Amino acid sequence: MSRPKKKIIKKSSTPKSPLPRQRAGRRIKFQAPKGVFDILPRDQRYWERVRKIVKQLANAYRFSVIDTPIFEDVQLFMKGTGASTDIVQKEMYTFRTKGGDHLALRPEFTPGVIRAYIGHGMKNWPQPVKLFSIGPLFRHEKPQAGRFRQFHQFNFEVIGDAAPINDVSLIQLVSLIFKKLGIKGVILQINSIGCPECRPNYKELLVSYYRKQSRKLCRFCRERLKTNPLRLFDCKEEKCRQLANNAPQVIDYLCDECHNHFKEVLESLDELEIPYMLNPHLVRGLDYYTKTVFEFKLEGPNSIELAGGGRYNGLVELLGGRSTPAVGVAGGIERIISILKAKDIKIPQEVLPKIFLVQLGDLARRKSLKLFEELRSKGLKVAEALSKPSIKSQLKAADKLGVDIALILGQKEALENSIIIRDMKSGAQETVPFNKVIIEVKKKLKLK
Ligand code: HAM
Predict the structure, then answer these.
(1) Confidence band, pLDDT 50/70/90 cuts, at residue 2
(2) What is the DSSP-derived secondary structure letter of residue 96?
């Protein structure tokens, strides 16, 4: 007797779906990706406040707004931000398009702004060109307090003028932003990291100092010694900090030009009575800086950096333009807002509506919507609860909002072309013709 033949089940050749499997009836619960978050309505007033002050000052300091794309050619950041920086090595969000382009979500504004300066021939505009941007940036960092994967900066660049007064003017502008926001205790730390003339000599000295004691360095610093020795100053490890404290300081090895530039910056800061702290270990994590570098931090140990910048006289040329000096700074908006909240700094309230529209029935609801727009177009701020069905619940909402008057349009009023004006404090009501409501409201609110 022959054995029954085994049934051969052919494996399906359908490719695996990239979508998560969903069991029938099960709902997938989506969450924002790690390190990014929603800015909810209750927080918008902080954002408005920061944006408003930054924009007002940008305008007063004669900056023009520039919006560059959120993604750019990956090479722009490799060259501009610097191939050996943490940003490029570890933190960039890169992707290939269907057409094969290799792009990156911008991790900072500066390279994109300089690309635009070169590409749009801004060298022919009156110099310096002063550009201001505000918007989101992306860095794949380890999420922690004050460090996000999508965050926002305000950014200023002054391109085409080598004078130290430009460095100082930016510092003054950012100091003023903190002052206007009511944030006290912000410390300016400043240093000069020289230029291609003097820095190579200093780097050699630094490397030879560290080489002699490289065994005492942590594993990351041993790597930094090979790739980016100035970044050895950034390490938080105690043994590396101790070595850094005795290391030669760049400020002692500046060429005459860098020395004089820095001297002038500091003298101007003194003149403007802007306090600063010289920090010989401040080098900043971006490759393009030359001469002045600076950071704003809240006073106290381990405080987080709120804004940072510096001069970058080589970047325009590096990205294909002609040799052009430039200086810039950026501030982190999330970090600034967290200070506003932590210090309970008062944010001016938005002007609340004084009028509430109450309605009942379909005809009244339609007429209310029309009236809402008429009132708005006459400059009157109005609140409504068109989706609430009962007059009682709408009046409750009006009361909660603290409006002066409620305009009540019931079914009867809607048919008779009238409307009730209710004084919310006294509860007194009067009925007026519908077409007179705006005049009557203005009279009641003592508006012209
Ligand atoms: P940066 O120091 O890399 O400089 O960033 C400026 C500010 O952005 C920081 O001081 C910080 O407040 C904020 N920030 C940076 N990373 C994060 C993050 N992961 N989460 C939240 N906030 C963050 C630059 O970006 C330079 N492009 C500044 C500049 C302009 N230099 C010359 N011109």
Answers:
(1) very low
(2) E
- Cα–ligand 1 centroid distance for 112 (angstroms): 14
How high is the pLDDT of residue 269? 98
Q: At what angle do helices 333-342 and 44-60 cross, to 10 degrees?
A: 120
CB atoms < 10 A from the CB of 164, how many?
22
Question: How many whole angstroms separate alpha carbon 138 and alpha carbon 237?
Answer: 27
Relative orientation angle of helices 256-271 and 164-181, to the nearest 10 degrees: 40
Query: Which class is domain 355-444?
Result: alpha beta
Alpha-carbon distance of 411 to 54, in angstroms, equals: 49
Residues 134-144 have pLDDT tens digits of 999 999 999 88
Question: What is the rounded (10 degree) CA torsion for 255, 257, 263, 266?
Answer: -110
Which tens digits make up the pLDDT trace of 49-66?
A: 999 999 999 999 999 999
334 lines ligand 1 (CB under 6 A): yes
What angle (nearest 5°) sits at the alpha carbon of residue 33, between those of residues 31 and 36?
A: 110
Q: Tally Cβ neighbours within 10 Å of residue 156.
A: 27
More confident residue, 56 or 5: 56
C-alpha of residue 331 to centroid of ligand 1, in Å: 6
- CATH code assigned to 41-198+254-342: 3.30.930.10
Q: Which residues contact 424 (CB under 8 A, 6 or more apart)?
A: 356, 398, 399, 403, 404, 405, 406
- 330 CB within 6 A, ligand 1: yes
pLDDT at 15 exceeding the cut of 60: no
d(CA 252, ligand 1 centre) in Å: 27
Domain boundaries, the chain: 41-198+254-342, 355-444
